[in-house]
Amino acid sequence: MKKNFLYFLVALFTQMGFAQSDLSWRGYFSYNEIKDVSESTTAIYAASENALFSQNRTTGLIKTINTIDGLSGQTISSLYHSATFNKTIVGYENGLIIAINETDGSMLNVVDIISKQLPSNIKKINHFMEFEGIVYVSCDFGIVQFNLATMQFGDTYFIGDNGAEIIVNQTALFNGYIYAATNSGIKRAGVSNKNLIDYRQWETIAQGNWSSIETFETDLFAINGSGTIHKYNSVSNSFTGLITLAQPAVDMRAKANYLIVSTLNTIYIYNRQMALVRQINASQIPDITASFTCATIIEETVFIGTKEHGLLTSSLSSAVAFENLTPIGPSRNNIFSLQATPNSLWTVYGDYTSDYNPYALDSYGVSKLTESGWLNIPYEKVLGAKSMTRITVNPSNEKEVYASSFFSGLLKIENDEPKILYNQTNSSLESLNFVGPDYIDIRINGAAFDKSGNLWITNSRIKNGLKVLRSNGQWQSYAMDNILKSPNDNNFGTIAIDKNGTKWLSTSGDGVVGFNEIANKFKKITIGPDTGNLPVSDVRTVALDTRNQLWIGTTKGLRVLSNVGNFQTDDQMKANPIIIVEDNLPQELLYEQFITDIAVDGANNKWIGTADSGLFLISPNGQETKYHFTINNSPLPSNVINDIDINSATGEVFIATAKGLVSFKGVSTAANDDLSSAYVYPNPVRPEYQGTVKIAGLLDRANIKITDIEGNLVYETTAAGGTIEWDTTAFGKYKVASGVYMIFISAQDGVETKVKKVMIIR
Q1: How far apart are the first and last CA of the chain?
Q2: Lateral strand order in the sheet of 311-315
Q3: pLDDT-above-90 percentage for the chain
Q4: Which end of the chain is more exposed for a tag (fewer CB within 10 A), N or C?
Q5: Are 296 and 303 in contact, with CB atoms under 8 Å apart?
Q6: Which residues have CB under 8 Å from 20's CB, separation 6+?
């Protein structure tokens, strides 16, 4: 799609990044899963799943870095800060290395390991060890040299038997030798040896699987796979068991005259004599169930990385007091579904596979973002609701929220507090009835409010698959066995309700099902030229646009129903593909794409998410692809798009991916009912401002004319939605001069008008 795609130009920080001059992105990442930590004399550095943060120990200032700043969305596996070069080195599971110059913030994307002719599953970076300006990178295939001065790779050491690949977990320098802890023994070679690429220069001094090796003061210590700390004996050239841990070690490092060993449940801190001076157990940390990943020490403070609760600190003294330094964010990066309102954003983390299997069940809570920050409601407070896959806010009362659980029922949240879990005991919701009477599995997914305040809910794999919770608290069920081929095998995706009150349900085996309550009638759009014209019967999402069209996202492409009003009159409704012309050849838009979600913005553009191809922004009629965002040309952390929603008041498009939440700050806000709330921002426009002037709070198709103070017309346009932008030029020719400019706004019919002013200072 060469002609219809407008791609981002990838232009850069000093070496790498994304140009953001006219496209505004924001990141909302979770920093809770700590992969590694490093330190300088003044700062602590922490790597989460795919983002970094640091704290200046003098000022307390916390700085975050994520894909918006140029990081990859891939999974981080190792972190190292070089105080000598003031550079932070980030290693990834796929072999990528990103070197960050802390002086100017520039980043270098190093892909040499990714490019190596090796199986992709053995390129993980496990550890960095610096010596004389060279970082020795421990990988799942061997050791690689990386020069911090030239920022280039040197030699690669394949040190397995006969030069084979071998997993190197950690290296250490001791008495002129490089020691490597591998899954096939501890190996060593002279660091000054110029021929270390020859595997025969590496001798094996201990057999077995070794997770860690570290130089501590004048000794060398290593830990084997079973969790025994060994000390090296230079006389016998062997390792002797010293301390047996209760669990295998996940990390070992020597810092601030201490040897710190981390296991899943315990941090052990030893002094120079290998006496235990502090033991931190996970059970000592109040209010959370912690699993440790690593730990380090700066002066007298211990920094502890955890799997789900971020970075904790504690004094090295025996006093048991902990502080959490983690930047506030959502609970997890893999947000499965979200809903934006003018004042908040709600997210849930439960999921299911591509064939709607929710197992293994997820035990995650719910998160809410407002101007005051993130509120994370933990699983312990959601009344046992597992695998929550949708979140639905009452448009008439933002304090009333419902979370759909694809196993436990429907959770009602009031004033940010979970209040009721609706299930088979207190509602019309039903469990799968073909497993057995004692097995409860209530699969609630898509839900939507109608204009009367009734909540319509889909209940998968049962006969009465459509439910409604009336605004008066009463429940009602609708049988679907006459419309669905096999109700017990059917799963529901999303639901949309049009202006006529017709409910449009996406199904896994019967395409789209429409239901009108007044007519008490079901109709179906499915595969086949005479039965709906869908490419496949598995529909994942439906969305209504401002022209009464139904956009249908399937696992094999896109279809559009031209007018939902035809539900009452057409015996068989038919959806059609959008045909575009590429290189003089007609072809189907988004042909064969697995479409996960569709959102419609205030200008009737379509934001379309896919299972593995990123995000598309399509014009109202589908004939123009305005943007195709991927991990290669945008800050998207993943090409797997789980969900999309749009804040109708601000136009901010929230994109939930498998690797994190980002947003695109557009200007396509929903149209207003009148011009009473029309406003201009920024105002005044100061010399340092480089952006556009926004005129918001508009009626759809309102006419906007901008003149100078003498009445000379400098700009005119028609609104598509609730906001327009002016680049402060006279019809795109030249920047207007300093002064006051009049903005005349009128409705399409001319009945309602509004006049605003904006001051421009050059």
Answers
A1: 41
A2: 292-298, 301-306, 311-315, 322-324
A3: 86
A4: C
A5: yes
A6: none
Partners of 303 in the β-ladder: 296, 313
pLDDT at 433: 80
How far lies 405's CA from each of 348, 384, 441, 482, 660, in Å? 10, 10, 10, 26, 21
Question: 285 near 311, Cβ under 8 Å?
Answer: no
Averaged confidence pLDDT in the chain: 93
Residue 585 phi/psi, 5-degree rounding, is -120, 130
Are 564 and 500 contacting, i.e. CB atoms less than 8 angstroms apart? yes
How many residues make up the chain in this entry? Answer: 762
Q: What is the DSSP string of 331-400?
A: S-S---EEEE-SS-EEEE-----TT---PSPP---EEEEETTEEEEE-GGGTTT--SEEEEEEETTEEEE
Contact 140, 149 (CB under 8 A): no
Output the CA–CA distances (angstroms, integers) from residue 24 to 27, 68, 113, 339, in the order listed.
10, 10, 32, 20
Mean pLDDT of 345-360: 96
Average pLDDT score over residue span 124-143: 98
Q: Are strands 652-657 and 693-696 parallel, antiparallel or unpaired?
A: unpaired
* Torsion-angle region of 733 (φ positive above 0: left; ψ -120 to 50: alpha; else: beta): alpha
Contact 76, 50 (CB under 8 A): yes
State how far Cα 190 lies from the chain centre.
44
- Please write the tens of the pLDDT for every residue from 149-181: 999 999 999 999 999 999 999 999 999 999 999
Q: Under DSSP, is residue 162 helix (H, G, I), strand (E, B) or coil?
A: helix
pLDDT higher than threshold 60 for residue 4: no
User: Cβ neighbours of residue 526 under 8 Å, at least 6 residues apart?
Assistant: 510, 511, 512, 532, 534, 537
> Taking a C-beta distance cutoff of 8 angstroms, is the pair 402, 447 a contact?
yes
Cα–Cα distance measured from residue 152 to residue 618, given in angstroms and rounded to the nearest whole number = 41
**Would you tell me how many other CB atoms lie within 10 Å of the CB of residue 195?**
10
Burial class from Cβ neighbours inside 10 Å (0-12, 13-18, 19+) for residue 734 reads exposed
The counts of H helices and E strands in the chain are 1, 64
**What does the angle CA 718 – CA 724 – CA 726 come to, to the nearest 5 degrees?**
100
Distance CA 78, CA 123 (A): 12
What are the structural domains, with CATH classification, of the chain? 30-250 (2.120.10.80), 251-327 (2.40.10), 679-760 (2.60.40.3110)
Q: Are 347 and 656 in contact (CB under 8 A)?
A: yes
Q: 42-46 long-range CB contacts below 8 Å, 24 or more apart?
A: 43/81, 44/296, 44/298, 44/303, 44/311, 44/325, 45/79, 45/81, 45/88, 46/79, 46/303, 46/305, 46/311, 46/325
* Alpha carbon distance 399, 139 (integer Å): 50
Residue linked to tokens 């830990």: 223
Angstrom distance (rounded) from CA 651 to CA 666? 5
Q: Do the strands 388-394 and 373-377 form a parallel or antiparallel pair, or are they unpaired?
A: unpaired
What pairing do the DSSP bridges indicate for beta strands 660-665 and 25-28? antiparallel
Strand order in the sheet with 52-56: 36-39, 43-47, 52-56, 62-65
pTM above 0.85, yes or no: yes
For CA atoms 735, 737, 738, 740, the dihedral sign is: negative
Which pLDDT band, with edges at 50, 70 and 90, does 667 fall under? low
